[in-house]
Specification:
The chain is built from 21 helices and 19 strands. The chain is of the alpha+beta class. It folds into three domains: about 45-165, DNA ligase i, domain 1, CATH 1.10.3260; about 230-420, 2-Layer Sandwich (D-amino Acid Aminotransferase, Chain A, domain 1); about 425-550, Nucleic acid-binding proteins (OB fold (Dihydrolipoamide Acetyltransferase, E2P), Beta Barrel), CATH 2.40.50. Bound molecules: adenosine-5'-triphosphate (ATP).
Length: about 550
């Protein structure tokens, strides 16, 4: 398919507001995709690679502006592109506003003619670009990107720029693509959903649905080395859990970072909650797994930082290890970590997602020594649950998890089968969607941040945070947010969603001051949630629930 046809379809989808019409349009696109099916199933969501792959283009906005500037002609600089972005508010609009045509003529002249861009060429070029590493790689990436923009007409450039910056913004979410795959290839939605949960690859699932139908989808199994979305929890109480289930499986809730372990029979690989590979920064966890296992397995657990006496430290400490790609030895001495495994998704050739929790936990106990496996107590006695909670807190942990002992493992679902109970006031994980420069001595540093939560179609503002930061934290946060500034007016800046802050607050009030309809009273910064993307931030409905509970 020509990239221009994809761009035309993306534009048509963007102009639709009804969900049904959007799904129909994506269905048609997938139906006529032929060899480009896998690529198009990803491109419509602004993805270049399968969700389970850690590969990224590793192109910051600035490099993209440079490539656009170069394609736009000699008199245009990356700063000009940024200025235009501040005026127009969106990179696709900016890319479409330049005329790259003259350059196309030049390139054609120099290289003996360039054909129109195809979806496959764009996918291949972007994969090649992602593979460039080492010194001078940024320059090479800009060159390669320039080569693509140079061949693009305005509409192609609009969607190319958005794709490169993973900001497709045409209203196509995960659910749309799932439904479109089902409709295009006449497969049950449930079968597509299950295959997606297991594989995390929309492209692959679309191909299997088309080529092998429902039987093929059902045969998609977990694969060691291909991370699965983590099962998540809702807030809950022991009373509620005992009402819903005959007995409750209770575990300590560790305050660390989620880790998924994939052991292929030889060695372990580790993935974070975002499915990024974190094998290299955690060699001692790899060694623990390699020592214990002989046959392939996929396991779920939490890595916790501990002090010299083995007592747990706040989760920020373990995230320092996750972020450390270089000089692991130094941080390793600095931060000691321990692995607590609490689930087993696959063991020895057998997928266990549909097995009840108690069986999966037994499996775990058969594979690992007790100090690595989280204790799980099954009880129907509220006093016993209260005791376990007291013990967890006494040992320095965050609270307890209440799980349905008979429930299956449902990847990516924040369902009722896992519930968390934390006695401390709940915190909120908010996306930063704007900020304000400081004054005087701090004029070059962002000082106040706009906190937003997820809604069905974007983000809603719930307050601003300006306290709780050290100067060093403000410097670091400013440096990380600056490339994501999308518009600036006086001291105020608008930001594309990028960082997630965990914030504390005194209470949540209903308020007409912010578009969320709620306001956080006395918000204070606690930490950057390094393990969360804007999609993982708290939702407006959670804010509503917390406000009701107060
Ligand atoms: P929080 O900010 O409360 O940690 P979260 O949004 O990161 O929440 P939730 O799904 O709400 O994630 O809470 C479950 C998280 O708690 C898991 O992702 C996991 O990292 C952690 N956890 C700690 N101990 C356990 C346990 N025994 N079983 C399951 N998850 C656990």
């Amino acid at each position: 398919m020509e990239f221009a046809d994809f761009a035309a379809r993306a534009s048509e989808i963007e102009s639709e507001s009804a969900d049904i019409a959007i799904t129909e349009s994506v269905t048609e696109l997938l139906g006529e995709a032929d060899d480009d099916l896998a690529t198009l199933a990803r491109f419509v969501q602004g993805r270049v690679f399968p969700a389970h792959e850690s590969t990224t283009l590793d192109i910051g906005p600035r490099l993209c502006y440079e490539a656009i500037a170069r394609a736009a002609g000699q008199n245009v600089s990356a700063d000009d592109v940024e200025t235009r972005l501040a005026e127009r508010g969106e990179i696709g609009e900016v890319a479409a506003s330049y005329d790259f045509g003259g350059q196309r003529g030049l390139a054609a002249f120099g290289s003996g003619g360039e054909d129109a861009l195809t979806v496959a060429t764009v996918a291949d070029e972007l994969s090649a670009l992602a593979a460039v590493t080492g010194s001078g790689s940024q320059e090479t990436k800009v060159d390669m990107l320039f080569g693509l923009f140079n061949r693009a007409d305005p509409e192609e450039a609009r969607y190319l720029a958005r794709l490169v910056l993973s900001e497709m913004r045409i209203g196509v979410g995960d659910g749309t693509v799932r439904d479109a795959i089902a409709a295009a290839f006449d497969a049950p939605v449930d079968a597509v959903e299950r295959a997606l949960q297991v594989s995390n690859d929309y492209g692959y699932v679309a191909e299997v649905a088309r080529d092998e139908g429902e039987t093929g989808l059902a045969a998609i199994d977990l694969e060691v080395g291909r991370p699965v979305q983590a099962m998540l929890a809702q807030a809950g109480t022991s009373t509620g859990a005992l009402e819903d289930w005959e007995a409750v499986a209770v575990e300590w809730k560790y305050d660390g970072a989620r880790v998924q372990v994939h052991f292929d029979g030889e060695s372990a690989r580790l993935f974070s909650r975002n499915m990024e590979e974190v094998t290299d920064p955690l060699p001692e966890i790899v060694a623990t797994v390699d020592d214990a296992l002989e046959t392939p397995a996929i396991l779920d657990g939490e890595v916790v930082a501990v002090d010299d006496d083995g007592a747990p430290l706040p989760f920020q400490e373990v995230l320092r290890r996750f972020r450390r790609k270089h000089d692991v030895a130094a941080t390793r001495e600095d931060v000691t970590v321990r692995l607590h495994l609490f689930d087993c998704l696959h063991a020895d050739g057998e997928d266990l997602l549909d097995a009840p929790l108690r069986e999966r936990h037994d499996r775990l106990e058969s594979l690992f020594p007790p100090d690595t496996v989280s204790d799980l107590w099954t009880t129907d006695d509220p006093a016993r649950i209260a005791d376990i909670e007291a013990e967890a807190l006494e040992a320095g942990h965050e609270g307890i998890m209440l799980k349905d002992p008979d429930a299956a493992y449902t990847p990516g679902k924040r369902g009722k089968n896992w519930r968390k109970r934390k006695p401390d006031v709940e915190t909120l994980d908010c996306v930063i969607t704007g900020a304000e420069w400081g004054e005087g001595r701090r004029a070059n540093v962002l000082g106040t941040f706009e906190l937003s939560v997820r809604t069905d179609d974007g983000f809603a503002h719930v307050g601003n945070v300006a306290t709780g930061f050290t100067d060093a934290e403000l410097d670091a946060v400013t440096e990380r947010l600056e490339p994501h500034i999308s518009a600036e007016s006086g001291r105020e800046v608008a930001l594309d969603p990028h960082l997630v802050f965990e914030v504390g607050y005194e209470e949540i009030q209903t308020s007409s001051n912010y578009d969320a309809g709620y306001a956080l009273r006395f918000p204070r910064f606690l930490a950057v949630r390094e393990d969360k993307t804007p999609d993982d931030a708290d939702s407006l409905s959670r804010v509503g629930r917390l406000a009701d509970a107060e």
